[in-house]
From TrEMBL:
Topology versus the membrane: Multi-pass membrane protein
Organism per entry: Natrinema altunense (strain JCM 12890 / CGMCC 1.3731 / AJ2)
PANTHER family, per database record: PREFLAGELLIN PEPTIDASE
Pfam family, one: Arc_PepC_II
Statement: the UniProt record of this protein carries the keyword Cell membrane: yes
Residue spans crossing the bilayer: 39-58, 70-89, 101-120, 132-154, 318-340
Ranges for region Disordered: 221-251
CC per GO annotation: plasma membrane
Single Gene Ontology MF annotation: aspartic-type endopeptidase activity
Top-level taxon: Archaea
Domain annotation Preflagellin peptidase C-terminal: ranges: 307-335
Protein name stated in the entry: Peptidase A24B, FlaK domain protein
């Protein structure tokens, strides 16, 4: 609790360091869909130190402060939020960065902070269904995440973009696809919510040394796996910006030098059973490419080879709802309680 005349306790003031850090991770999630794991280490260490500091203050405060104000919410935070984050990551509901962010919040914000601003005390709404502040942040983030698809649907409807996938995506021109994060919502059979991951697309193009424009110029040529490069490039992790130069596969089928260099591609697959060399690519990289199958890769390439505009799902960069949920929790409190109860 905040001492009389004080803005907040020392631990609560130091916890505000997390706000700009989470703002930065939310920005990185939008721009790159990648957040380095090293960003969570200092926050974890800070959270552990503040947890010990809070325990010391509660122990010396006497009364029920130790059990009611510290021990119970800390036990709930570590015993409930941590398993929830792990289970959602395990079942694919969260990305690795999302789960790590929630684990950090469980350590950093187990108890409700208080910030005195003149006659105001934040959070404004201190009532909660569960005593752990990290759980309030989580429920706030989930509510924000639920609202985002509705906002997307309204935007599409206002622009006249009416489609079955309007709640999860929007159309983009083909030349923006290489710089776009998300998932293709189209297959040759029509709209679908299980299309090609665009990170996997970038991995494939870099592996072959191609741009999407080159592939569209000569789709029949690149559909033939005999044109696979003899020495493929590293596929990278599919990020929009790749480190290092990408070597083009060069030449044409009429070139004798290329014919000799592409013997490896001809050995890896035949045109009849591996269009685009999709299976050869996935076998060669010895990885999952975000769960992409040869069929999914082929379908995506067939669409992108001719379509001028395609529907893309940006997905939900969940670090954004987490950051917004953190801000709402600090300023207002439990959005679930305030909205529905």
């Amino acid at each position: 609790m905040t001492l009389a005349g004080a803005v907040a306790t020392g631990p609560d003031l130091l916890r505000l360091v997390a706000v700009p850090v989470f703002a930065w991770t939310a920005y990185r999630d939008i721009e790159t869909r990648r957040v380095s794991s090293t960003v969570w280490i200092p926050l974890s260490l800070l959270g552990t130190a503040l947890l010990l500091w809070d325990g010391w203050l509660a122990w010396h405060a006497g009364g029920t402060a130790w059990t009611d104000s510290f021990l119970i919410p800390t036990a709930i935070s570590l015993g409930l939020v941590v398993p929830i984050a792990y289970l959602f990551w395990w079942f694919g509901g969260f990305g690795g960065a999302d789960a790590k962010a929630l684990l950090v919040l469980a350590v950093l914000f187990p108890t409700f902070p208080e910030y005195a601003l003149g006659s105001w005390t934040l959070p404004l709404e201190s009532t909660t269904t569960v005593g752990a502040f990290s759980f309030t942040i989580l429920t706030n983030a989930v509510l924000v995440g639920v609202v985002l698809p509705l906002v997307l649907a309204v935007r599409n409807a206002a622009a006249g973009r009416i489609a079955p996938v309007m709640i999860v995506g929007w159309p983009v021109a083909w030349d923006r696809v290489p710089e776009t994060h998300g998932r293709l919502l189209e297959t040759p059979a029509g709209l679908s919510q299980g299309g090609l991951d665009l990170d996997a697309l970038r991995m494939y193009l870099r592996w072959r040394g191609l741009s999407l424009a080159e592939l569209r110029d000569r789709p029949d040529r690149y559909r033939d796996p005999a044109t696979l490069p003899a020495e493929p490039n590293p596929p990278t992790d599919g990020a929009v910006t790749a480190d290092g130069p990408v070597r083009g596969d060069g030449g044409t089928l009429e070139s004798a030098a290329e014919d000799a260099g592409l013997e490896r591609g001809a050995e890896m697959a035949s045109a009849s059973d591996d269009p685009w060399g999709a299976a050869a690519f996935l076998d060669d990289i010895d990885g999952s490419a975000y769960g992409t199958t040869p069929e999914t890769l082929r379908d995506g390439l067939e669409v992108l080879a001719t379509a001028e505009t395609v529907w893309i799902s940006p997905g939900t960069p969940f670090l954004v709802p987490i950051f917004v949920g953190l801000l709402i929790a600090i300023c207002y409190g439990d959005l679930l309680i305030g909205t529905f109860i």
